[in-house]
Amino acid sequence: MKLLGISGTLVGAKTLSVVKRVVEQAALLEPGLDTDLLDLKDYKIEFCDGREPAGYNEDTRTVIETILSADCYIIGTPIFQASLSGALKNVFDLLPVTAFRGKVIGFVGTGGTYQHFLVIENQLKPIAGYFRAYTAPDYVYAHREHFNEHNEVVDVGVLERIESLAAQVVKMSKALHG
């Protein structure tokens, strides 16, 4: 079983930090789990314009193929202007509607206000529903005050939510895919 962590932003380090921590926790819970991280900052992804995947540049095709090859996901985004990042939305637009069908997604959000956690409930979970994915009941939202100066999560409550999300994604994926 392959778990892919996706940091859906082109700026900052906090989202990647939390996604990476959830993926690492999942690997501790399930030693045979194959894990990978996809940091959108590392790719020059073209804007979706309706072309077939073969028509996009190599980085865009690599991102699409990497996502399609995974069995479950931890998808993170910073919250900008009360919404997910444009970079992550563009990736969702590039994917076929079957990309996440029958697969488990756990969501991570980072932001500057305590109310931005609602983006996970009101935007990300409906997108997962459109893709016919299963979503973990819990999610992780981390405010900038939950990190130290090295962008590491230090808040005990957030660390507990990281453990819970990792456990739910692993358990749900195992139940669905054996």
Q: How would you characterize this protein structure?
A:
It is a single chain. The chain is an alpha/beta fold and 178 residues long. It has a single domain, classed as Rossmann fold. The chain is built from 5 helices and 6 strands. It has helices spanning 14-29, 58-68, 86-94, 118-130, 156-177, and strands at residues 2-7, 34-39, 72-78, 104-111, 134-135, 140-143. Strands 1, 2, 3, 4, 5 and 6 form a 6-stranded parallel beta sheet that branches. Helix 4 links the parallel strand 4 (104-111) and strand 5 (134-135). The longest helix has 22 residues, at 156-177. It is globular, with a radius of gyration of 15 Å. 38% of the residues are buried. Residues 1-144 form the NADPH-dependent FMN reductase-like domain. InterPro entries: Flavoprotein-like_sf, FMN_Rdtase-like_dom, NAD(P)H-dep_FMN_reductase. Keywords: Flavoprotein, FMN, Oxidoreductase. This is FMN reductase. Pfam families: FMN_red.
Topology, please?
Blueprint: E1 2-7, H1 14-29, E2 34-39, H2 58-68, E3 72-78, H3 86-94, E4 104-111, H4 118-130, E5 134-135, E6 140-143, H5 156-177
Parallel strand pairs: 1-2, 1-3, 3-4, 4-5, 4-6
Helix pairs in contact: 1-5
Give the amount of beta strand, in percent.
15-25%
Shape: globular
Q: Termini, distance in Å?
A: 9 Å
CATH superfamily: Flavodoxin domain
Count of discrete alpha- or pi-helical segments spanning 4 or more residues: 5
Q: What is the oligomeric state here?
A: single chain
Order of helical and strand elements: EHEHEHEHEEH
**Total number of beta strands:** 6
Q: Return the CATH architecture.
A: 3-Layer(aba) Sandwich
CATH top level assignment: Alpha Beta
Q: How is the main sheet built?
A: 6 strands, parallel
Low-confidence stretches: none
Helix and strand composition category: alpha/beta
Average pLDDT taken over every residue: 96
CATH names the topology as Rossmann fold
* Number of domains as seen in the coordinates: 1
Rg is: 15 Å
> How helical, in percent, are the residues?
25-40%
Protein name: FMN reductase
Keywords: Flavoprotein, FMN, Oxidoreductase
InterPro entries: Flavoprotein-like_sf, FMN_Rdtase-like_dom, NAD(P)H-dep_FMN_reductase
Pfam family, one: FMN_red
